Amino acid sequence: MEQRILILFAHPRVEKSRANLALTRSIPPHPDITFHDLYERYPDFNVDVAYEKKLLLDHSVIIWHHPFYWYSAPPLLKQWIDMVLEFGWAYGPGGTALKGKIAFNAITTGGAREVYSREGYNRFTIREFLTPFDQTAHLCKMIYLPPFAVQGTHRLTHEHLLQKAGQYSQLLLRLLEGRFRPEGLQQYLFLNDWITQTQDVTI
């Protein structure tokens, strides 16, 4: 089944981020992909709740795209969650507006993949740090997928960044075409692995 994708992009200093500039430039120009830059639209943090709700209703895949600031997200994305996902609409009695929609995080981290582990410098895995997003999606009856992550960004060469950006583009195109089963994607630690380990295969 074909999907419509909403990318909720939250980066307060995107002009300083090689990784996020590469990722956002790789987004295919497709009518069913909406790129929504929260910091550009809401520099005063005054989120238009009605507008954001309509965007959510109009799309079937929701991507929280952000840098991994202090093991979480920039403040405007938290503000968006606090204001838009209202009781009685997104969760709670009668709160079924987002039921069955797909959600996941697309993140960039300065630390490499190996430092996010029980034995690593950061002591916890990326998926453990993303538990609040996981539970938020669960509470809203959404389907939460593994993250897409570009890690070790400070040491990535231009060629490696382009490679990661290409993976993001491929991911978006696959999601658009609906060539996947959500339960099949849960076997991967990262959606990057789905892209790199499979070719034209329905998972």
Describe this structure in words.
The protein is α/β, with parallel strands linked by helices and 203 residues long. It is built from nine helices and six strands. Strands 1, 2, 3, 4, 5 and 6 form a six-stranded parallel β-sheet that branches. The chain is globular. 34% of the residues are buried.
Blueprint of the fold:
Layout: E1 5-9, H1 18-25, E2 33-37, H2 38-41, H3 49-57, E3 61-67, H4 75-84, E4 102-109, H5 126-129, H6 131-139, E5 143-144, E6 148-151, H7 158-177, H8 182-185, H9 191-197
Parallel strand pairs: 1-2, 1-3, 3-4, 4-5, 4-6
Helix pairs in contact: 1-7, 7-9
Task: Provide a quick synopsis of the model.
The chain has 203 residues and is an alpha/beta fold.
Any descriptors?
single chain, 203 residues, alpha/beta, Rossmann fold, 6-stranded parallel beta sheet, 9 helices, 15% strand
Mean pLDDT reading: 92
- Classified in CATH, the superfamily is Flavodoxin domain
Give the CATH class. Answer: Alpha Beta
Give a count of the beta strands, DSSP E runs of length 2 or more. Answer: 6
Indicate the radius of gyration in whole angstroms: 16 Å
- What is the fold named in CATH at topology level? Rossmann fold
CATH architecture: 3-Layer(aba) Sandwich
Uncertain parts: none
